[in-house]
């Protein structure tokens, strides 16, 4: 079994969506191992070596060069990558810069399951192989839109932002946006795509206002 994963946004010392990350962290352990080995994810992260202590990057008492993450600490935003199995947990702080996405391409992959966030991303690597660096995929399963290779989705019809009802992974930012009524759920087919105006790619690393947003015509083959 591949280790499981949480990717948490750390910006200006603040860990975002922690109650939702913590809930998924605990649920994943219960569902797959029948017990909870690790608790208090926020404490584990904040006590981890390399945790950025302030905006300049120095933890109290640190000396330059003492920590392998020192070079990253000049950044304000990090991806906190928590990889965990029944025998080990590791935490990294990776400077985060969002990728550039200009085009979208639909793909169909019916035998796909990513119900739990894990380090096994082979199917996504296969689906994105050979694509231009600024192109992202939209995955259809059983005729319905699900996710991109790394994010949940939101589509705007001129009045309402909708998100696919059956994502591959129920992301924490998506859950937050549903809870605060920014998004509503709906089944979306390939034929439905031209009825929308815009599409957003949403994940835990980006604010709703700043996340990737493209016109629906950025999807290959969609004409308005």
TrEMBL record:
Domain of life, source organism: Bacteria
GO MF term list: catalytic activity
Ranges of Low complexity composition bias in the record: 52-71
Record InterPro entries: Aminotrans_IV, Aminotransferase-like, BCAT-like_C, BCAT-like_N
Position of the signal peptide: none
Region of interest: Disordered: 49-72
Protein name: Uncharacterized protein
Organism from which the protein derives: Arachidicoccus ginsenosidivorans
């Amino acid at each position: 079994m591949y280790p499981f994963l949480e990717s948490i946004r750390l910006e200006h010392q603040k860990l975002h969506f922690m109650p939702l990350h913590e809930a998924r962290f605990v649920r994943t352990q219960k569902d797959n191992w029948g017990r909870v080995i690790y608790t208090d994810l926020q404490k584990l992260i904040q006590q981890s070596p390399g945790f950025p202590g302030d905006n300049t990057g120095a933890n109290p008492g640190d000396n330059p060069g003492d920590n392998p993450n020192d070079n990253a600490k000049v950044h304000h935003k990090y991806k906190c990558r928590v990889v965990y199995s029944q025998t080990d947990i590791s935490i990294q702080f990776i400077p985060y810069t969002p990728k550039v996405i200009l085009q979208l391409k639909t793909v169909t992959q019916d035998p796909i399951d990513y119900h739990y966030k894990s380090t096994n991303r082979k199917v996504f690597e296969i689906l994105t192989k050979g694509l231009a660096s600024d192109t992202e995929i939209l995955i259809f399963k059983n005729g319905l839109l699900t996710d991109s290779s790394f994010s949940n989705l939101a589509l705007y019809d001129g009045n309402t932002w909708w998100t696919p009802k059956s994502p591959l992974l129920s992301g924490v930012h998506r859950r937050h946006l549903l809870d605060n009524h920014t998004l509503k759920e709906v089944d979306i087919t390939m034929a439905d795509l031209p009825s929308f105006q815009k599409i957003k790619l949403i994940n835990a690393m980006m604010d709703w206002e700043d996340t990737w947003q493209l016109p629906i015509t950025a999807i290959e083959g969609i004409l308005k």
